[in-house]
Please model this.
Amino acid sequence: MNFRQIFDLPRSSIHCSNMNTKARRTGAFTLTELLVVIAIITVLAALLLPVLSAAKAKSQRTNCLNNLRQINLGVRMYSDDANDTSPAASKTNSVDVFSAYKQLMKNYVGVPGASSPQEKIFTCPADLFYYDYAFTLQPRGYVPQSLCLQSNNDYSSYSFNAGNLNHVLFNGTNFVEPGIAGMKLSSIKTPSRTVLVAEMPAFVPYSWHQPRRPFNLADSVFNGSRNTASFVDGHVNYITMYWDGTWSKGTLALAHDPPAVYDYQWGGGF
Model:
């Protein structure tokens, strides 16, 4: 386009071209405006993340409680067919007494065949780590793996209240923990308080749902941890566990009944 052609253009065309250029200039962000927008997004994210995290944790607990409700029903159905007797599975070479119950009752919840990590009903979605223990029950350390992926727990996040099958020699004394394995369910005096099946950390206790610093054992295994549990009367709950704060044998949560102010007990005889 030559000089003459420019002057021959309609004035409206030149005016629109100027307006478009001006619009493009006024529509762009300045550096200050961009920084303000980023700051606002950062603040909103900081406010929303705890809310989203809490919602996710609640969803995981609900899922876990639903699993326990179905497992509880399976145990009750097994017991009905076993003359009202709760599972009393002996320890095997690869599975302890707290996990061996699963082989007796899993058909009642539609999980036949060999156990595997794919059994969703036995998997708590918050099960992302566990603690390895020595024979003294001192924790060896934090393991960043799901407990339900371990064969020695029969690929389950949940354990049966079978401490009474766990005979341990401690300081020359044969120590027997409380529990209800092999008991007549109808003989349990307080079924609404007596644990039937719970997620495994409840027996220690530590928490998958409110974990503390995982590499500091004093802050990870603690009195007041929150865990999901099912009870002999069939209800499930998210409860606070009792631990007296020492690591000597016989003082894990599963080794003794808590003070009466707590909402559960291991023994079924009172």
